[in-house]
Design a protein that fits this description.
Elements lengths: L3 H14 L4 E7 L2 E6 L4 H10 L7 E9 L7 E9 L4 E9 L4 E3 L9 H11 L2 E3 L29 E3 L8 E3 L8
Parallel strand pairs: 2-5, 6-7
Antiparallel strand pairs: 1-2, 3-4, 4-5, 8-9
Length: 178
């Protein structure tokens, strides 16, 4: 595990090498976070994977964080690991509801279902993804359930019959207060 001084140096090196794509870095709690221009995320992950000083060859996950009060309400967050350096890195870029985030599955094929999950639950759109459809919710599902403005009870209440009859969808009795 790298100490904070080495992470600080690594962060400075990455930001200097990726001018315009890597915007800033921070080290907190022995973790390195790089702020990125989300439109250039593919360039950033390619560099981190192939550069001999980085070798972040292990993809961990992609997710989002919702800040509904901001104009660019989402932070799209990527986690990678370098077995060579024995450390992890977090990439964070801002996106609005309409921002089209380039897919990284050309660099890390394992990002496939993580990007689909982020689309399904937050509504973040990944371009260049070969199968951008819902992963965890039904095809007709309305909305994105991990957004902070999603109603606590959802838009439709599903009731099941004890005799294994088809489910009944109730929209008129919903309490849509969040």
């Amino acid at each position: 595990m790298m100490d904070d001084a080495k992470l600080e140096t690594l962060g400075q090196t990455i930001v200097a090498a990726l001018s315009g794509a890597a915007l800033d870095h921070a080290v907190a709690f022995n973790e390195l976070t790089i702020s990125v221009d989300i439109a250039k995320i593919v360039d950033v992950v390619k560099f981190l994977k192939t550069d001999s000083n980085c070798r972040f060859v292990s993809f961990i996950d992609v997710t989002a964080v919702d800040y509904p009060g901001r104009e660019q309400r989402f932070d799209v967050v990527y986690h990678l690991m370098s077995p060579v350096l024995n450390t992890r890195i977090r990439l964070r870029g801002h996106a609005s509801e309409t921002t089209q985030v380039p897919s990284i599955i050309g660099v890390f094929p394992g990002a496939d279902w993580f990007e689909r999950e982020t689309y399904d639950l937050y509504g973040v759109i990944f371009t260049g993804h070969p199968d951008m459809r819902r992963l965890l919710t039904d095809y007709g599902f309305d909305g994105h359930p991990l957004r902070k403005d999603f109603p606590l009870s959802g838009f439709v209440q599903v009731r099941y019959n004890d005799q294994d009859q088809p489910p009944h969808y109730d929209t008129d009795k919903l309490n849509t207060k969040s």
